[in-house]
Structures are given as structure tokens and as C-alpha cells.
Amino acid sequence: MATLTSRHPFNLYYNAGEYVKICGTQDGYFPDFGHHMANEMGGVWLHPIKLLDGFWLKVTDLDRNIAVWARADGFTSESWGGSRFDYDHGLSHIPVSIERSQFAPDYEKGMVAEYEISSYGKGTTRLKLELLSRTDLRPVWYSDEIGIIPGAGETAEAITSRKVIVKDDAQDWYAMIGSDLPGVEMTVGPEIYGPELTAGKGIGISFVTECALEEKDVFRFRLFVAGSESSREACEQTYAVIERNHVSLKEQKQQLYDKLDQRAVLTIEGEDELNEQFAWVKRNNQWLVQQVDGIGRGLTAGGPTYPWWFGCDSTYALQGVLATGDHQLVRDTLNLLLEKSKEANGNGRFVHEVTTIGAVSNPGNTQETAHYIAFVWEMFLWTGDDALLREHYDYCVQGIDWLLGEMDPDGDLFPSGYGIIEIAGLNMELIDSAVYTAKALQALERMSLYLGETKRHETYQKQAEKAIRAVNDVYWSEKDSLYADAVAPISDILPKVDYMVSLAEKQGITDYREYVEGLLADAGENQKDRGWLLNKNWVIVTPMEAGIADQDKAQRALEAMRNRDFIGEYGTYLAAMYQQGTMTISTGAHAVAEAAYGHPDHALDLLRRMGKSFSRVVPGSFSEMSPDYGCVVQAWTIYALAVPVVRHFFGVQPEAQHRRVTLSPDMPQAWGNKTCTLEHLMVGDAEFDIHFESREGKRYASISNASGWTVVLDWKGERRESNEKRIEWQLEQ
User: Phi, psi (5° rounding) for residue 212?
Assistant: First the structure.
């Protein structure tokens, strides 16, 4: 299987199963870092609790009298979900090299780290080895707000000379640490530290042995870690499983990633980098799947800074997950968020942020309720799951009532409140909330028609038409050929000016006051709602991304954004006014917008810009903030890659409920005569292979349709249809 290697020792990495997440630096260390929990976001986590601050290996050459805490000088991301650290120069002239390989089983609450020490010195090399771990049993962020407080300390009990169990003094939280390292020397205590004085309150556990290696000898040993957030018995049982079955658990993980790699396989001739990136974002998303007993399973937003569940992150990311075929993860994530929304709100409002201890730290921004409703219909088109649609439909109805009731007091179909751009004070009628509300009404129109609710269908149809028209009329700035960030009367803007100016000045923008005063002067004495281009945030692409922009306005807006004000080296700026930050979501939404309105070349250009940040921090991953900061892996990157490629370049339009797929391909010119394949595409319970190629100057489409669904090809206005299991159509001379 493929691997990607880095030599950036102080970069973070993320190594994960569905239960346990491991995060340290690529030199094998575990420095303190983090802001949600100051200095505590790294280490080994079994959500909702932390198990270890870290683990380290000390190597002493007894003959040369050299002792070092081993520090890796090479790091590899394994495509099957493990990590490898290579140590040589970090061993200070001790004639051995070390390889550390670690993984977290996907369905067990623990991890394994295996060490191989290879001698290349002449004669005998006598070593003393110390394998040291530090526990730190504490809960995830926001736990204290709901009254879950860890004890002041921890208590350790030695089970054998190579096995220790540790308990939090106030809670039933356990960690069990052990090794198959030979020998009997072990010390345990809160005063025992390795090379890093970590901030945690835990206990140090040191296993020591000596060994003699001849040239080319290899010495192997392992560290085993297990945990439980509920009982000692469960912790001990998990440890026994991991210790006994670590070889088969690794094989099981490799098989899981093999299956993942076989879904939605993209192969574009001459696009090796893009093909590789597409494969890795599927793996990245598996890193972010989090199971918590008693709460559920779902896709978290990003690691290591946001390792819990989010509303809007999910409704973006899960569009990519649908397109790449993991429909069960979509169900699990959305059902978890639905249950938490009902529990925390109960009125149709969709939650923003749920920690892995089950606490809702933000009950939901306006935009994400609308986006959730729109996504439910998208989910149904891909899965055809009638029961799943019905499960979410009632809450969608409540959600639109909340949006157009409590959140829309003036009745203009533009709900107020925060959108995805969470800038304090900008809780107005924002463009993304308005656009996704229009999309939500479209979705409910289609849901209600499918479910036979004629009266609601008629209501939603009229409201959707009115909302789409209003977005295009009210948010449009004819002067700028752009959609506005927000709609408000001048009386709502005036009190916010000083605050907005202060934010701009903190970003080094010195002429922002003059800019806003110009906007105010243009508004004059008019007290009616009007559009405001306050920051030119990336969300002004959402009318195009969602497909509701008038054709002429869409073309003008996209053209107006194809410049250095909006686009930088790595993609689309978060705000053209600041030009200081880029995310995969801003670039991805912009790429979708370009592709949706017939500009695949511009969409591909944006994806190539985003691709420059691939592997900049973690080999095989895109960072949250391009090119190299924020979370080292981010869920919605799969939206940024998969949606433009699958839904637009290949033109996949699923209707699983009708056992039908329409293909309306719109490939970039660079791919025009190249072989382009998308294999093992999942729609409902059917699988398709889509293949475009040129032979003897002619272009052909070949589709494997094993389930015999109806396949419609819309090629430059010409429609063809077939339900044969093997389809081949000539496209052009």
C-alpha cells in the first residue's frame, strides 16, 4: 500500500482508530499544545477522555557511555492508517537505527506501538532501554460546564512488572499500560518524567531492560495501551484483546482501508497528484470518524483542534462522503446530530457543536439549520433510504418554521443570526443563511412531494421561488457585479462600524474606515434593507455553489472573483478585504461554484492551488488553513475535492429512489482527450464504473451498470438512456 514520508520533525501528526486518536510531533515526541484545553490537545485520547500525555524511549550505549531520548528524523503516513517513525541521526552516534510503528485499532479502545532496533555497529553493542509513558486522565473540553470534573490526582496499581493500571481519583476512568519488553525493572510515580515536562497531572511508568546486539541483529518489543471511560473490567478486557490480537487487529485495519480505497477510485490520465490527493482525502476522513459508546458514531470536524462533531462542517463534508460512497458514515453522523439537536433544542434548530462527552457548546448558527435541511434531500438522492428521509423530515419541517418564524421577524425569507463566518457582531441577514434557506425550501418542496404532502408542497414551492428571487434581487450589487455579504438597513450597520474597523486594523487593514464610510455614503438616507459588501467573505460564492444564482449574475460574479483580490497561491481567501487566510472550504466552495456554472477549467485551477498545500504538514493530508496551519486534517476537504470532481466534472446526478443515475459530464479542457475513470461509485445499493476515453480520434463513454439501473447520459444537450449492464456510447467524431 502507498505511503508518504516527511522530514519535518516538529510538525504534528494524527494517527487514529474510530475510538482512539494519537497526536504528537513527527519526531516522536508529545509537546504540550492546544487552546480549547490549554496544553492538553495532544497525546493519546479515548474520547471523551485522555489516556496519555505521551510515551518516549531512552537509549543508553553502555560501552560508549552515551544516553539519549530517541528523537525521530523521518515520519511516514501509512495508507492503512498507521504511522512510522525512523530514528538514526537522532541517536547521537549510537550504532543502531530504530523504527517505531504505531496504530490504533478501529474498533478497540487502545493502541499499539512496536519498536525495532537494528544494530549496524561492529561487534557487540550493549544497550539499556527505558520505555516511559505518562498518563493524564482528564475529560474533553467543555466537560466542566456540565459538571464533569476529574480528580486532583491518579492512582496506579502494578499488575505485573510490565503492566500497570491507572485510575482517576474521582471518576471511573482507567488507562492500562504495558509492554512485552523483557526484564523486571519498573518504576511508577507522579514524579517520573521523560524528556518533556508535560502539563498533565498524571503518573509516569518506566519499563527498563538491557540487551546486547551483534551487527545486523534486530530487537523488537511493543507498548500496549488500553482505556475505559466506564470501568476497570472493561479496560482490562480491552488490554487483553489488544495484547493477544495485535497482529490480527493490524490486519483488520489494513483490510478496512483496502475497502475504503476500493470505493470511488479516481484515475485521470496524467493527473497523478490529483488522483493521489483524492485517494488520501478518503483515508483522512476515516481518521476523523469518532465512536463514543452511549452517544454514537460520526465524522468529527478536524484533528487535533476540533475532534468533535459540528453541524455545518458535517453538511459540507458529508456531501463529499456521499460522493465517495461511505453512506453508512453519512447516516451515523446525521443521526447523531439529529438526536443532539432534538435533545438540546427540540424546535428544529440544528446544533453547531457537540463535544464527545455529549455536551452541546453551541446550539446552532442560523446557516446550519438551513444547510442541514438542504443536505437531507441530497442524502436521499444518493441513498434512496426512505426510512432515513422520514426520520429527518419532521425535524426539517420544524427547522424551516424556526428559520422563517423566530429567526425572520420581518418575514423577508432572510433569517437573521450568525452564518458560517462567525465574526462577533455580524449576526445579520447573511448571504449564506439566505442562500441555504432558499435551498432548504427547495429541498422541502421535493421531500413533501415525494411523501405525498400536497399542501406543504405547494407552500414550499411558492416560498422557494420567492426566496430564490429575493436572494438574486436584494443581495445583488450591480455596481460590484457581486453578491453582498449581508442585507440590513443602514441603522443596523452604523453601530457596528467601530467594531468592524477595529477588527480590520488588527489585521493590518488601515483604510477600512474609509471603505465603510464610502458604503454608508452610497446608502444615503435610505432606511430600507440593502446589500452590504462588508468584507467580501468567501460565502458570497454560495448563490453559485448552491445553483440558485441567475445565470447572468452568476457569470458576472464569477468573473469578478477571478483575480488576486479573491484568489491567492493556495486558493480562495476567507475574505477578499483581508487576503490573509485560505481554507479548503473557501477554495472548495468556489470550485463548486465555477463548475456548477460551466467553468470546469477555473474549478480545476482552484483545486490545483489547493493541492499545493497537500502534505505540507502531515504526509497525505491537507491542513485546515492553507497551506500549513490549523487542524492537520480537516473533514470538509473531501467536499472540496469530491463534489467538483464527481458531481460536476463527471456530472453524476443520482436519483437512488428511482434507481436512476444521470451523467452530465463537463470535463476540464486539459482532460478532453485523456482517459478519465471513476470506478466503484456507490449510489444506493448499486455500483457503477464510469469510463471516458478516446480511441482513433473518437470519444467514448463506457458505464458498468451491474444492477441494471437506468443510466441517462446528457452530453452537450443530447440525451441517451439505457439499463443495460454494460453501456458504451460514442460521444463525438
Answer: -120, 125
Helix (H, G, I), strand (E, B) or coil at 262: coil
Are 649 and 665 contacting, i.e. CB atoms less than 8 angstroms apart? yes
pLDDT of residue 8: 82
Q: How far apart are the first and last CA of the chain?
A: 40
In this prediction the pTM is 0.97
For residue 441, the Cα-to-chain-centroid distance in whole angstroms is 27
Cell numbers describing residue 128: 539499556
Ramachandran quadrant class, 725 (left: phi over 0; alpha: psi -120 to 50; beta: rest) = alpha
Look at residue 425 in the predicted model and tell me its pLDDT: 66
485 sits in the region (left: phi over 0; alpha: psi -120 to 50; else beta) called alpha
Count CA within 13 A, CB hemisphere, residue 314: 35
Q: Cα–Cα distances in Å, from 571 out to 21, 520, 635, 639, 671? A: 29, 31, 17, 15, 21
Least Cα distance to 357 among 43, 30, 42, 45 occurs for: 45
Nearest C-alpha neighbor of 563 from the set 579, 552, 551: 579
CB 691, CB 701: distance < 8 Å: yes
Cβ contact 127:190 at 8 Å:
no
Backbone angles phi, psi at 224, to 5 degrees: -115, 135
For 324-360, where are the alpha helices, taking DSSP H only?
A: 327-344
Rounded Cα–Cα distance for residues 87 and 99 (Å): 6
* CA distance readout (Å), 687 to 118, 177, 633, 659: 47, 44, 29, 11
> What's the maximum distance between 2 C-alpha atoms anywhere in the chain?
90
Any idea of the CA torsion for 337, 371, 20, 44, to the nearest 10 degrees?
Answer: -110
Nearest one of 232, 282, 339 to 682, comparing CA atoms: 282
Rounded CA-CA distance 642/468 in Å is 26
| Cα 336 versus chain centre, distance | 16
List the chain residues with pLDDT less than 70: 1, 424-425, 733
The answer to whether the peptide bond before residue 668 is cis (omega within 30 degrees of 0) is: no
Residue 364 DSSP code: -
Give me 641's grid cell: 475535492
Q: Which residue has the cell 467594531?
A: 499
CA dihedral (169, 174, 175, 178) positive or negative: positive
H/E stretch holding 56: strand 49-61
φ and ψ of 439, to 5 deg: -65, -35
Q: Which three cell numbers stand for residue 587?
A: 477554495
Confirm if 96 and 125 have CB atoms less than 8 A apart.
yes
Per-residue pLDDT of 565-616, as tens digits, reads: 999 999 999 999 999 899 999 999 999 999 999 999 999 999 999 999 999 9
